[in-house]
UniProtKB/TrEMBL annotation:
The active site is at H144, C208. This is Peptidase C60 family protein. The chain crosses the membrane at residues 26-50. InterPro entries: Sortase, Sortase_dom-sf, Sortase_F. Gene3D superfamilies: Sortase. The keyword Transmembrane applies. GO terms for molecular function: hydrolase activity. Keywords: Hydrolase, Membrane, Transmembrane, Transmembrane helix.
Length: 232
């Protein structure tokens, strides 16, 4: 009996050991499966994340839009002034001396004598070029200055370099800027280089020169250069 009980005790002990080993194996197996599942999930998340990141990278790699440059690109800028074909002038404005007047014509046959027929009007000299961006020569306007009177160009001598002169024609408006003022003896002005040289874009304003309210034997020539044009 003692021997039989001893064998039964050994058998129960062996069964308990085998059971513990099986449980341990089951636990290890379960842990392994769980880890495998977690690794698969983690891998899926990692790859999904890479897919998302690739989209982000492709977007980020595109040039960033500068709001300032974008604004410039969308703003409609005014067009540059177009050409104003040469035409007979109809009006002149010189703000610096308060002059606004119509322009009349001295026919080409009146040259080379420059003698405006009235005291209070500005005249375009018809034997010289018409004003315009495609003008082929120098434009000449003339008018009288009257000592003690009201000649249209009495204040022409007050102009300074940079003052604006605006000429209107049927084709548009031309802006000139004063560049020089020169004096010529009356008998020499017609043959002066300013009058005989063809200079496109140049404007000459010609009058008698008055010094301290008195006539002199000279003519005053104010030269201005074309700086801008606005077509009609």
């Amino acid at each position: 009996m003692a021997g039989s009980e001893s064998r039964h005790a050994e058998t129960r002990h062996a069964l308990r050991l085998r059971t513990r080993h099986r449980r341990a194996e089951l636990v290890r197996l379960a842990v392994g499966v769980t880890l495998t599942i977690l690794m698969c999930v983690a891998s899926a998340l990692v790859f999904t994340g890479l897919d998302d990141t690739s989209d982000e990278v492709s977007t980020a790699s595109a040039p960033a839009v500068d709001p300032m440059s974008a604004g410039v690109a969308t703003v409609a800028l005014p067009a540059e002034p177009g050409p104003v074909p040469a035409a007979i002038p109809t009006a002149v404005s010189i703000p610096a001396i308060g002059l606004n007047d119509v322009v009349r014509v001295i026919p080409a046959g009146g040259c080379p004598v420059i003698d405006p027929p009235t005291l209070t009007d500005v005249f375009w000299v018809g034997c010289r070029a018409k004003p315009g961006t495609d003008s082929d020569g120098t434009t000449v306007l003339t008018g009288h200055a009257v000592a003690g009177g009201s000649g249209v160009f009495n204040e022409l001598g007050d102009l300074r370099n940079g003052d604006a002169v605006y000429i209107t024609t049927p084709r548009g408006r031309l802006e000139y800027r004063v560049a020089t003022q020169r004096l010529y003896p009356k008998n020499a002005i017609a043959s002066s280089s300013q009058m005989t040289t063809r200079m496109p874009g140049h404007l000459l304003l010609v009058t008698c020169y008055i010094d301290d309210g008195r006539f002199t034997g000279d003519n005053l020539v104010v030269e201005a250069h074309l700086v801008s044009a606005i077509p009609v």
